[in-house]
């Protein structure tokens, strides 16, 4: 591991945590209904590993994911600060110490999201709510940061000077995604949560610091080249599993068998009727 990059990441991560704790932007109001659309292979991975996959931003399609805006660059150039900022290549390398899970905010299932995230007819959408989503995360290595994405005009509006804060801004062209984003960053642990966990487990107080340092070091160990698995409680995470409206009854039965195999109720599975003609 490049120790200079690790140090730079640590500094930006600490700065982001301070921004996160005091910015109103990250205060999610209400218990939002959220959805995650995926193919059957990703569902199988979620169930088998009891973990959500958080992807590095460098794995996303949008080339401006996590970038400064044009407005930022012009302003910084005018103020002669541009030369002090990391290059785009260095930004990407530092952002690779973080990983993201994307969720769609909607009171109803979305026809557009089915088309966008499924390569074929078959797939599912996990439906849950904001509070259960956060509370389902059981991985002690990370503090989970969450927020609704800000969709802005990159020619007229600013993002942020912080490398991780920029990951909560996208261009208005992507506003149809209406995204709730979860992010983990290597080195950022949830100290207060860990203290309550250690207390419940009866771990002596004089061992807490050592255990936290161990978890902090483990937070750098991503399970995949383009992201990492973050453990979660399936029953709390999954409120409903909607099967694609284009899927056959055989696929519905397959999904039901998959989730019951991992101890979830078959009543959680719903065949989407999005394209069913019910007007007479």
Q: State the separation between the terminal residues, measured CA to CA.
A: 64 Å
Order of H and E elements: HEHEHHEHEHEEEEHHEHEHE
Question: How much of the sequence is in beta strands?
Answer: 15-25%
Q: Report low-confidence residues grouped into runs of 5 or more.
A: none
The tally of helices reads 10
Average pLDDT, rounded to a whole number, is: 91
Q: If strands are numbered along the chain, what order do they take across the biggest sheet?
A: 5-8-3-1-4-10-11
Shape, principal axes of CA atoms: globular
Structural class, by secondary structure, is alpha+beta
Strand count, sense and closure of the main sheet?
7 strands, mixed
Helix content: 25-40%
**Global Rg:** 20 Å
User: Would you count the extended β strands for me?
Assistant: 11
Structural notes for this entry:
The protein has a domain at about 5-40 and about 50-110 and about 140-185 and about 220-235. It is globular and about 60 Å long. α1 crosses α4 (about 90-95). The longest helix is centred in the first third of the chain and has 20 residues, at about 5-20. It is an alpha+beta fold. A seven-stranded mixed sheet has the order 5-8-3-1-4-10-11, sandwiched between helices. It has a two-stranded antiparallel sheet with strand order 2-9. The chain has helices spanning about 5-20, 40-50, 70-80, 90-95, 110-115, 130-135, 190-200, 210-220, 235, 250-260; strands at about 35-40, 50-55, 100-105, 125-130, 145-150, 150, 170, 180-185, 225-230, 240-245, 270. It is about 35% helix and about 20% strand.
